[in-house]
Amino acid sequence: LGEAIDHPVKTYSSGMYVRLGFAVATGFDPDILIIDEALSVGDQYFQKKSTDRIVDFKKQGKTILFCSHNLYQVRALCDRAMWLERGREKRVGDATDVVDAYRDTLREEAQKSEPADRRLQEKPLCWIESARLCSSDPTRPVRIQPGDTLALEVWARFEPEFDSVPGIAVGIVRNDGVVVYTVASTMESVPLLKLDGNRYYARIVYPNLQLLPGHYYFNVGTTDEENLQGYDIRERVEPFIVTSKGLDFGIVRLEHRWENY
Known about the structure:
six-stranded mixed beta sheet; alpha+beta
């Protein structure tokens, strides 16, 4: 507070109140330190001093109760977290798991539309029969980590009247509707495997899939050689969850390197 420490407290701003309160609380040696959004006020110098003091307390093995909406700070500072909703306990557990669950809920609330199966043909000439994730994990949804390999099998039917090269399109979508990546077999001139009758099969493999934590699902559809038309689109099939203890955030982990020259 500098020279303002000698001014009447009634002249302090809300930020100055927080500075004073934080200084008093951490100036002692408490067994339990309770902090409520203190890191969101003040200038960068104060925020840096506050963070350093909290980290120092943590290194000493002190108990810290940190209340905040800053999910990155909760994940970085806390070992365990409690998610409160309307004053009631919603979830308690590992801080990473609770923060990821909270983020996913916010994304789902932003994307309230129901999954749809859209057949854009009056007389169906092709359609998706089924799609299945290849995983030894019997639980659903499948859980993976960044860098794992993920594979999806798709079966489709194309009638003889379908006058084009049969294709299957596959998209990965986050649960808030953000499209991560979409590609079709016909874009890359990959023929489908023809099975009995008019059935076709394709398996798409994503090696070293660098998605960051969140809930995702696949959209699959039938397409043609020009990739201008989706004929039968199935949304939100085979959901899966990505988990990680890392602190990087976003949608994907991009290959990169740091240089100092």
